[in-house]
Target: Integrase
Amino acid sequence: MAINKIKPLAFKHLKPTDKEQNINDGGGLYVRVRPIADGGGIFFRFRFRFDGKQQWLSLKASDLVEARKDRDTYTQMLKDGIDPNLEAKLQKERVRQHQLDEQEALTKLEARVTVRGLFVRWRDTELTNRKDVKEVSRMFEKDVLPVLGILFVEDVRKGHITQVIDALLTRGVKRMAKMILALMRQMFRFAVDRGIIEFDPTASIRKAKIGGKDVERDRVLSELEIRALARQLPNANLLKSTECAVWIALSTLCRIGELSKAKFSDVDFHLKTWTIPVANSKNGKVHTIYLSDFALAQFKLLKQLAKNEMWIFPNRGHSSHVCDKSITVQITGRQTKTILSNRSKDSQALVLTGGKWTPHDLRRTGATIMGNLKIPPDVIEKCLNHTEENKMKRIYQRQELKAEQAEAWRVLGERLNLLVNMDTSNVVLMQQR
Model:
């Protein structure tokens, strides 16, 4: 059989007629021209014998040159003992599988989540009921997302986590480093639970190894220091409201974050109470503080300063309460050796003989004074609004000891009034127990 019977020029002039045309090009290649009634069109077919049977194979070639290459390829397959029809089916399956693999890869690529995307999902899903969601967001925006935010979650490794932690340790904020590690661990475990990743990149990092073992803080101001604080506060160039906050924290045992969020509507000046609502309370329970005359005087002064404000400690725009950290930052800034450009003269204004102190130390100090005044420990725990750790006591001992709490705050207030507002030259200072 002659090879290449159809001349290229002749092939270009092939046109459909009323009848189907099958033109042999040699070597088993046929050009099929469908009739006009069937829509016309030119196709290529390859005829061959395999295992003694004659078979046809439709080619996908679009022109004669390409069809002849296919014919030569299949002819070689026959010489190698390969069935062209079977090979064509296998090739079709390979193409289909390749397309499926590409689609799967594309789907996985589109489904990849960045650490920032994971954080948003975790925040909106898991943190909605947490009171510190704004603070968590602030910490991530400042210290975590600038480093990890653009990474895909499955690409995060232990080294990326330690990069964040080491930066915090370099700044000297060891406690913050431990806290952020714990939060990142919660977020990545959320990702594991949701099937976003298989392994938590923080799993092998031990919290105890970050900056060494935690040392429980036990700073308590002595009564001598409280007297010194009363002398130093007016000259520390603090906001008057911050001075009041110091005495309220000391006389009510409140947490500074609870005080920062307080509204005047929470204070009943007639009944002499301050109610910390569920939204502001750390343990999620309403807490009523019976104000001593000492504490009530501070709230009255704040009322005079604020005039018609809703918030006791408003932010600069008066749209909400002040930042939880504001009072702490002001107090810490008066106990540092760092020379600040506009506050260098005040940087040592609140330094006390016992060392650095924080607003939370005032809470511990007030509780200690109560103990020195013979207030029972269970009453002090109620005043602190601590949750009972013993499950049995928590379930069965539900007495609120309101009268006892009121008395505890009263005697604390009287003691503080004696130390702060009167001539204390004849006051016998109590020894801390």
Observations:
- The chain has a mean pLDDT of 85.
